[in-house]
Specification:
48% of the residues lie in helices and 15% in strands. It has helices at 16-27, 39-51, 66-80, 103-131, 152-176, 199-211, 217-229; strands at residues 7-11, 31-36, 56-60, 85-88, 134-139, 178-185, 238-241. It has a 7-stranded parallel sheet, with helices on both faces. By secondary structure, the chain is an alpha/beta fold. It binds NADPH dihydro-nicotinamide-adenine-dinucleotide phosphate.
C-alpha cells in the first residue's frame, strides 16, 4: 500500500508502541487519529507530528466504552473522509499468579485487551467494507503464541486476539480487500510494566531489562510499516518480532 495520503486510527497512541507507530505513519504522509484516554499526551503528540510537517488529530477514547470508540472513529472519518488503517493496540498487562485472585485486574485486561479491540474493529469495519479496502493490525504478543505460569489472564487475552485476527482475516480479507495482521512482539521498552501491582512480578519484569536488550517501540513501528507497505496482494498475516537476546 502506498501510505502517503492514507488515514489511520491508532489506539494506545499516548505512549509506547502506539505513539512510535503514529509518529512513523505521520512521517510517511499518513493522517493519524491518535486514540487513548490521556488527552494531554495525545495533544503533545499532535503538536510534535504537526511540527514535523505531518497531520494528526487527538481522539480522547476509552476503548472499553463502545460509545466513546464509535464517536472517535466517526470524528476521524468526518475529518479525513476515509479510514485505511486501524492499529488496534491499546492494552494492559497487570500480571500476577492466578491464585492471587486479582479478579478486578483480570476483568480489566479482558475489557481492554479483548473487548476494547472488538469495539474498535466493529467501529472501523463498516467504513472499510464500504471502501472495499483497508488494513487492520491487532496487537497480540508472544503471549498470544506461548504460555508461561504467572501470566495466565494476560496470555489468555493475547491468545484471544491472535485467534480473532486469524478468523477475521479469513472472513473479511477475500470479500472486502481488507488485510489483517496479528502483531506479536516479544519484550518492548514501554510503560507496560508500570501497571503491575504485584511487587514480585513487577521486580521480575524489570530485572529482564538487565538480562537482554529490549526492542524499542520504533522497532515495532518499522515492522508495521513493512506490513503496510507490502503490495496490495500480500497480507503479512503475522508479525512475530523478538529481541535477539530473548531466550524464551
Ligand atoms: P504502554 O503502556 O506504553 O501503552 C499502552 C497504551 O494503551 C497506552 O497508550 C494507553 O493509553 C492505552 N490504553 C490502556 N487502556 C486503555 C483504554 N481503556 N482505552 C484506550 N487506551 C487505553 O505499553 P505498550 O506500548 O508496550 O503496549 C501496547 C500494546 O502492545 C499492548 O496491547 C501490549 O499488550 C502489547 N505488547 C507489549 C509488549 C511489551 O513488551 N511492551 C510485548 C507484546 C505486546 P491511556 O492510558 O492514555 O489510555
Amino acid at each position: 500500500m502506498e501510505l502517503n495520503g492514507k488515514t489511520a486510527i491508532v489506539t494506545g497512541a499516548s505512549s509506547g508502541i502506539g505513539a512510535a507507530t503514529a509518529k512513523k505513519l505521520a512521517a510517511h504522509g499518513v493522517k493519524v487519529g491518535l486514540a487513548a484516554r490521556r488527552l494531554d499526551r495525545l495533544q503533545a503528540l499532535v503538536s510534535e507530528i504537526e511540527a514535523a510537517g505531518g497531520k494528526a488529530i487527538a481522539l480522547e477514547m476509552d476503548v472499553t466504552d463502545q460509545a466513546s470508540v464509535s464517536a472517535g472513529v466517526a470524528t476521524l472519518h468526518k475529518t479525513y473522509g476515509r479510514i485505511d488503517i486501524a492499529f488496534n493496540n491499546a492494552g494492559l498487562m497487570p500480571i500476577s499468579d492466578i491464585a492471587s485472585l486479582k479478579l478486578e485486574e483480570w476483568h480489566r485486561m479482558v475489557d481492554v485487551n479483548i473487548k476494547g479491540l472488538f469495539n474498535t474493529v466493529a467501529a472501523v469495519l463498516p467504513v472499510m467494507q464500504a471502501q472495499k479496502s483497508g488494513h487492520i493490525i491487532n496487537t497480540s504478543s508472544i503471549a498470544g503464541r506461548k504460555t508461561f505460569p504467572g501470566l495466565g489472564v494476560y496470555y489468555a487475552t493475547k491468545h484471544a486476539v491472535a485467534a480473532f485476527s486469524d478468523i477475521l482475516r479469513m472472513e473479511i480479507s477475500p470479500e472486502f480487500n481488507i488485510r489483517v495482521t496479528s502483531l506479536q512482539p516479544g519484550a518492548v521498552e514501554s510503560e507496560l510494566f508500570e501497571h503491575i501491582s504485584d511487587e514480585n512480578y513487577r521486580a521480575r519484569m524489570e530485572q529482564l531489562k538487565e538480562q537482554m536488550t529490549f526492542l524499542k517501540s520504533a522497532d515495532i513501528a518499522d515492522a508495521i510499516l513493512y506490513a503496510l507497505q507490502a503490495p496490495d496482494h500480500v497480507d503479512v498475516a503475522e508479525l512475530f518480532i523478538m529481541p535477539t537476546e530473548q531466550p524464551w
